[in-house]
Every structure is written in C-alpha cells, then in structure tokens.
C-alpha cells in the first residue's frame, strides 16, 4: 500500500502538469491560428494587406526591383534556400545521424517524424486550398506549387524549432538554451520574410506556414517531454522490482 506523496514529489508533479498544459495550449493555439488565417484568406479578408506589404517591398517606379541594394537581394536568396526542401532534408539527415551516434534514437525518430509530417501537411494544405502565387510583382525565385501555406516557412519552423528543442534538452545552462532557441527563431523569421521579399508568397502564406510548422514543433516538444519523463521514471521502476 502506497503512503502519502512527499511534498517535493507533489511540487515536481505540479510543475510537470503546468508545462504540459502550456505545451498543449501552445499546440492548440498554433492549430487555431492556422485555420483562422486560412478562413480569412478564403474569404478574401487579407487580400488588401497582402498587396500592401508586397508593394512596400518593391521600388514604386519599377516593380521588378525589390527595395535595397543587389547584395541584399542576393542575401535574401541565400537565406530563403535555408528553408528549401534540399537544405532541410540535409539538416534532418545530419541531425538524426548525430542523435543516433549519441544513442538518442528516440530523439532521432521524433525529429525525422516531425519534419516528414510537416512536409506532408504542407503539401496537403497546398492542394486543398489551391491559392495562386502572387501575381502583383515578379517572382525572384523559382516556384512550382500552390501558395498557401508557405512550404519554406512550414518546413523551417518544424525542423529548426524541433532541432532547438532537442538540442536544448541536452543542455543544462539557461544561457545556452536561450541561445539555441533564439537562433532557431531568428532563422525561421528570416526565411519567412525572404519569401515575401522575393515576391513568391503572400504575407499570410508565411504566417500560416509558421503556425503549421510551430504546431508540429510543439507536438514534438510534447513527445520529448513524455520521453524525458519516462526515462526519469524507469530507474525507480527497476529499483522497485516492477
């Protein structure tokens, strides 16, 4: 017969419950935001602001010319490539192999599954909504699929935020955790912004992509928490003969 739960254990349980609730709320919020944006886009409510933002990033005298020097334009092309299928695939493969080398096969599985699911959900959404690419300004990058949501934004958010979660989970220093998450967030924001700057996505495509990718990253975070909790409980069960 079990005795009363120690006060310290109760405090740990409360912290775990609070974190779980926050993660679930984050996941729910990201999913809700995605479908809310999709609804607004479908009703045409976002068209005016989408057009305004795209035109703000072009020379009014020549819509073929994005604002800023040519060097900045080339930098945007370099940045947008970091969210492309090829680069994200390479990052996923290398990241998964590194986790496997460190005997973190569950982390590798979570990482690969998250990126795959993000890619599949993005492709499905593109086919379902079928939003045309912007025709207001010339495209500064090659495109071949529908516009909503931004695949680059979805993939980069899912891949880099999930990778940050997995790496930060192995670190003990708060400063290191903050740096890892900060770099991931900045990278994701820059990739999304580059898609609008290059004229290949409406701003709401990018917002929806961020929401969808963040939802998958949050789901991965929940999975990692469950794995961590199970790992902490395993030694206790072994000692008690279960």
Give the arrangement of secondary structure elements.
Blueprint: H1 7-42, H2 47-56, E1 58-59, E2 62-66, H3 70-81, H4 85-101, H5 105-129, H6 151-168, H7 174-197, H8 203-239
Antiparallel strand pairs: 1-2
Helix pairs in contact: 1-8, 3-7, 4-5, 4-6, 5-6, 5-8, 6-7, 6-8, 7-8
Beta-strand percent range: under 5%
Percentage of residues assigned to helices: over 70%
How many extended strands? Answer: 2
**Low-confidence parts:** 235-242
The main β sheet shows up as: 2 strands, antiparallel
- What's the arrangement of strands in the largest beta sheet? 1-2
If you had to describe this structure to a student in words, what would you say it looks like?
74% of the residues lie in helices and 3% in strands. Strand 1 and strand 2 form a beta hairpin. The chain has one domain. A two-stranded antiparallel sheet has the order 1-2. 33% of the residues are buried. By secondary structure, the protein is mainly alpha-helical. Helix 1 packs antiparallel against helix 8 (203-239) and helix 3 (70-81) packs across helix 7 (174-197).
């Amino acid at each position: 017969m079990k005795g009363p739960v120690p006060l310290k254990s109760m405090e740990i349980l409360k912290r775990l419950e609070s974190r779980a609730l926050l993660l679930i709320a984050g996941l729910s919020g990201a999913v809700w935001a995605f479908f809310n944006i999709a609804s607004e886009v479908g009703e045409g409510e976002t068209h005016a602001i989408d057009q305004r933002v795209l035109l703000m990033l072009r020379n009014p005298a020549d819509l073929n010319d994005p604002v800023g020097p040519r060097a900045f334009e080339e930098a945007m092309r370099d940045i947008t490539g970091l969210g492309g299928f090829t680069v994200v695939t390479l990052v996923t493969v290398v990241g998964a192999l590194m986790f496997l080398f460190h005997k973190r096969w569950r982390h590798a599985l979570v990482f690969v599954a998250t990126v795959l699911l993000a890619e599949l959900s993005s492709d499905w959404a593109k086919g379902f909504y079928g939003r045309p690419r912007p025709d207001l300004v010339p495209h500064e990058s090659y495109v071949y699929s529908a516009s909503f949501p931004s695949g680059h934004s979805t993939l980069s958010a899912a891949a880099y935020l999930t990778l940050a979660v997995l790496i930060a989970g192995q670190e003990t220093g708060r400063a290191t955790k903050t740096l890892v998450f900060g770099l991931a967030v900045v990278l994701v924001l820059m990739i999304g912004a580059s898609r609008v700057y290059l004229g290949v996505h409406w701003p709401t495509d990018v917002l929806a992509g961020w929401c969808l990718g963040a939802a998958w990253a949050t789901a991965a975070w929940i999975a990692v928490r469950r794995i961590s909790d199970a790992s902490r409980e395993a030694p206790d069960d072994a000692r008690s003969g279960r």
